[in-house]
Amino acid sequence: MTIRIRRHDNGIVVLTMDHPPVNALPAQGWHDLADAVRAAGADERTRVVVLRAEGRGFNAGVDIKELTADPGHAKLIAVNHGCFDAFKSVYECPVPVISAVHGFCLGGGIGLVGNSDIIIAAEDAYFGLPEVDRGALGAATHLSRLVPQHRARAMFYTGRTATARELADFGSVWEVVEPARLHTAAWELAESIADKNPLVIRRAKESLNGIDPVDVHRSYRFEQGFTFELNLSGVSDQVRESFGEPGGSGRHT
């Protein structure tokens, strides 16, 4: 199962991504995650959502193997719709979403945490967009919510990552903890929010989204158009063919 849902009596809902080996989700997995987030937010008993993951890291983005196995563009379209759906569900969730990040948070993972309300990270967590190395673009919208503009550009062009400590210095990560304390720290923060008046918190989330200076949906959709362009031109296929090969441009950062 890709997404596990656990509801608690105090209004905290914990959503766990578990898709070995690296939580690189297929197209349906992104939609499943979106459905889980929407269902949690639609339940009036829910006061806060914690998004976490099992395994080696939080999220490695999309399943590249699913894309390369498709001779056409159907899977590309499907996964782009899936990512858009998942990112949108996190941003529009009526209650705060806390992302508890360990290990790698790459590609689509940046879209999830960038649209979440609060990020708590383990000391081993690192964040980045290796999209250029994979013949794709996207989620710069969300990376720009995590790091300053020029840092985001440099990370996007080079594929280099930022540590949890660096993001904490930028103010985008709330707390950096030892890996063994990640779930506890996220739970304690969720409890502090769940203790508040639920209607006030829901209106607070709505009001904060309403004053956001960037329309994250339109901005990300604009980015996705360039991914389609690169794929239609054949450039993406050339890059993906070298993904993971010694000396190739595609690499896991």
From TrEMBL:
Superkingdom assignment: Bacteria
Pfam family, one: ECH_1
A GO MF term: enoyl-CoA hydratase activity
Key words of the record: Lipid metabolism, Lyase
Keyword Lyase recorded: yes
EC number: 4.2.1.17
GO biological process terms on file: fatty acid beta-oxidation
Entry-linked InterPro entries: ClpP/crotonase-like_dom_sf (IPR029045), Enoyl-CoA_hydra/iso (IPR001753)
Keyword Lyase: yes
Protein family (similarity comment): Belongs to the enoyl-CoA hydratase/isomerase family.
PANTHER family: (7AS)-7A-METHYL-1,5-DIOXO-2,3,5,6,7,7A-HEXAHYDRO-1H-INDENE-CARBOXYL-COA HYDROLASE (PTHR11941:SF169), ENOYL-COA HYDRATASE-RELATED (PTHR11941)
Full protein name: Enoyl-CoA hydratase
Species: Saccharopolyspora gloriosae
Lineage: Bacteria, Bacillati, Actinomycetota, Actinomycetes, Pseudonocardiales
